[in-house]
Write a structure and sequence with these properties.
Distance between the termini: 65 Å
Number of helices: 3
Radius of gyration: 21 Å
Largest sheet: 8 strands, mixed
Strand content: 25-35%
Number of strands: 16
Oligomer: single chain
Structural class: alpha+beta
Order of helices and strands: HEEEEHEEEEEEEEEEEEH
């Protein structure tokens, strides 16, 4: 199970280690902290109210859209694990929410580092969305809320060279407003609506007849 790995990574993010990647590699610094809300509700309260499976945890990840990415294609920013290097493909599983040195969130307090250089150019432009999810003991991810989409060109203040800047001096992209997906109607509800419409049509036909 990968949740434990990213919990360790969240703790390790407090102290950044130099030399993991070449100086020319750009990374997006991002995190989700305790000030975030989901549909106006504080994020921690939203998580408390969510009917999460036993043994699961909440995490955050960054989805990439636009550019040459096709509709329905899942592309996520990878993550640097301080002291370990780049975890290629690990971005799909995100960073777990946890308490770090008195701070609560995903990537607090200094931010996660995700390679962004491959998405610096594109027509149309690449965009990033922070997804909040619940991940169960089998690593199955369920998205519970998403941020608004942000184009690469609008995030320049949060993109830096890997481990090249003092964490206390950098800006971190920290979306604070998230929206929960609208649940799709169940098949039973759709059937009930269909039957109601059919009955209404028959009554109309009877009146007109």
């Amino acid at each position: 199970m990968r949740i434990g790995l990213f919990k360790i990574a969240a703790y390790a993010a407090v102290t950044l280690t130099a030399g993991v990647a070449s100086a020319g590699d750009d990374v997006l610094y991002w995190m989700v902290d305790s000030t975030a809300t989901v549909d106006g509700q504080n994020i921690s309260l939203f998580f408390d109210d969510y009917d999460a499976p036993a043994g699961s945890a909440f995490a955050a990840r960054v989805r990439v859209t636009g550019g040459d990415i096709q509709d329905g294609q899942d592309v996520f920013l990878d993550l640097y694990i301080p002291g370990s290097g780049l975890d290629e493909g690990g971005g799909e599983y995100g960073v777990e929410f946890s308490d770090v040195g008195g701070y609560w969130g995903a990537g607090v307090p200094t931010g996660n580092q995700s390679p962004s250089g491959d998405f610096s150019a594109g027509t149309p432009e690449y965009s990033f969305i922070v997804e909040l999810g619940n991940i169960d003991a089998q690593d199955n991810w369920t998205t519970v809320a998403t941020s608004a989409s942000a184009a690469y060109s609008t995030l320049g203040d949060f993109i830096h060279e890997t481990f090249d800047i003092n964490p206390g001096q950098i800006a971190v992209w920290s979306p604070t407003t998230f929206t929960a997906p609208v649940p799709e109607p169940s098949s039973g509800l759709l059937m009930a609506v269909g039957l109601a419409l059919l009955a209404l049509r028959r009554k109309r036909a009877e009146r007109e007849g």
